[in-house]
Amino acid sequence: MNKKELAEIKNNFTDTSGFFTLNRVITAYIDPQKNVRCKTNRIYSLIPEEEGSVLMESLRKIFKGNLGKNLLEYPFPNAEYKENGAQKILYEAMYSKLTDESTTDKLIVRIMNNLAYEMAYTLIIGHCSYSIISKDRNDEMFDNAADEYNFIVAAICPANTSDDGLIFDSETNTIVKKSNTDPIISREPTDGFFFPIFNERAPDVNSVMYFTKSPKKPNISCIDNVLGCKFFMSAHVEKATFQTILNDVVGDELNYTVITQVNEKLRELVENSKNETDLPVLDVNKMYTILFDSGVSNEKLEALPDIYKNKVGNGAFTATNLVENKTTLSTSEITVNINKDATDKVRTTVVDGRRCLIIDLDDSTIWINGMTTYIMGNSM
Fold it and tell me: Which of 63, 116, 247, 374 is 20 to 30 A from 32, alpha carbon to alpha carbon?
């Protein structure tokens, strides 16, 4: 599933779209002991408007964020289409349009029993239909609708009791302490998924899209145990792994110039792909080229294939997850943040035997603790 396909579904996931319908919604409140405390299965159009808008809002947020970070596409292993496999359970629930109680209960039980979650939560599952609009070579829509894309989307929304602190009690005209004992269900899902994905403008039942609110800490149990897929690196781990490979390969040649040049080459890769529908990736061959162009010696680059394969195998990095928007240079006493367009104004060098950081200034005005001051001197 590419960026354009994701944007198309997200933009149409609304009551105001003439091409999209949220048909039916299941809600289930699950306590920390993995008990379903209540469950509803309703036609969306019959749900009171205020409640329906909240359900729509929470489900729509599953499409929020960026591919490769918040949204991770996973192919199903072949075993997951067997009886009681995740793919089969999802397919049966989707095919029944959430109307068959036995198939929907299977899905709820699978999520409840396999999701590692420390608190109570509400599970919201919606069945949706999207009329796939035909497009010409210029990406312009035809007037007539073509096939229909049916899918289910699930949102996991935590429920918390909260301490409301001090309140004004109008009956007694006093300020008193109040604690809320009713669980409040968040509108912000922490995890979720939709199935099937929308691939090449058609449903693709061989993959599922997982959503995480926190790209640095995805709920691996949702991926491995609920969806039956094999977890691969999060955006945070991708960057850390890439940096480890960089350290292991470049070694003592790793300096300010190499690091900033590598980041600049990655930025160019992302920028050159911004109009492409697929995410830009960095495989071992592209990494070799970037390191070579950044000044790393052939001797060091000989070790890259083996080190890369040991860390990543035959996989590739999502390039957007590797780019640094600013360069941070720090010692135990000083930290300097450098804008992405100003890395060429900073140099490391040795002056009179002392290691120095030199910053070129375009004018004499600088700000120290928010106060304006000037660096005066004679031009050389």
Answer: 63
Q: Which pair of tokens denotes residue 9?
A: 């579904």
Confidence at 379, pLDDT banded by 50, 70, 90: very low
CA distance 45 to 374: 66
122 contacts 32 by C-beta, under 8 angstroms: no
Do residues 342 and 328 lie in contact, with contact meaning Cβ atoms separated by under 8 Å?
no
pTM, whole model, 2 decimals? 0.75
3-state class of 110 per DSSP? helix
Is residue 339 very low, low, confident or very high in pLDDT (cuts 50, 70, 90)? confident
Give buried/exposed letters for 35-53 (b at 16+ CB in 10 A, else e): eeeeeeeeebeebeeeebe
Strands 141-160 and 184-185, sheet pairing: antiparallel
Helix or strand or coil: residue 282? Answer: strand
Q: Where are the domains of the chain?
A: 3-231, 236-321, 326-374
For CA atoms 39, 44, 50, 54, the dihedral sign is positive
Rounded CA separation 142/110 (Å): 41
Rounded Cα gap, residues 380 and 82, in angstroms: 77
